[in-house]
Amino acid sequence: MPGSTESWSNSSKLFVGIGSIMAILTALLVVALLRDPVEQPRENSFVDPSETSPGTPSPASEPSSGPTEVPPPGSLETVDIREVAVAPPVALDETGDFETGVTLRITDVEAVDGVARGPGQVSGPGLRLVLEAHNDSGDPVSLEGMVVALAYGAAETPAMTLTGPGGDPFDGELSPQSKSGGVYVFAVPVESRRQVSVSASYTGSAPTVLFEGDAARASQ
Questions:
Q1: pTM greater than 0.85
Q2: Which DSSP string do the residues of the chain spell out, in sequence order?
Q3: Class of domain 90-213
Q4: Is 93's pLDDT higher than 80?
């Protein structure tokens, strides 16, 4: 039957066409999958700090460039504390004895208008002390460490040291059987000069000498 043969032929062509289309679609799908694979879920990157081995930096931070250990503290040595001995006070016109063969005396106390040149100094009424040191020992003595201070009034208020006029502190070395002079200027109110004390020390191994008296009649 010619009609049946023609109908079968058309059906066969239809099936072949559909099959070809399906094959093409399948090939396109495979190519797309190969070019853009499905992204797999990532594993959790969190790291428990307790599981991190010592010395291993955490993935979320960079290793520190500083020291990892605290330097040990320096050794501490026990230092004996010795009280500074003070010799019995003497009058302003007497001689102070350091008990080392070195003696000190105040040769003059002058009332001056103090001159401030150093930091923190204030110009005003003052006293200028002229001192003389004697070395009756057989060895030279350094006077570089000589410290002279003055206090005034019943409260023993420390007087400010002034540069001038004429300040010239002790320095250098005092030879055996010789003497040397030094000049010190202090700011002292006129009304507070009736009671003054002058202390001097040149070494920690000798007592501090102390002079006390009335400087209200200091020469002008």
A1: no
A2: -HHHHHHHHHHHHHHHHHHHHHHHHHHHHHHHHHHSPPPPPPPP----GGGSPTTPPPTTSPPPSS-SSPPPPPP-------PPPBPPPEETTSEEE-SSSEEEEEEEEEEEEEB--STT---EEEEEEEEEEEE-SSS-EE-TT-EEEEEETTTTEEPEEE-BTT-B---SEE-TTEEEEEEEEEE--GGG-SSEEEEEES-TTSPBEEEEE--TT-B-
A3: mainly beta
A4: yes
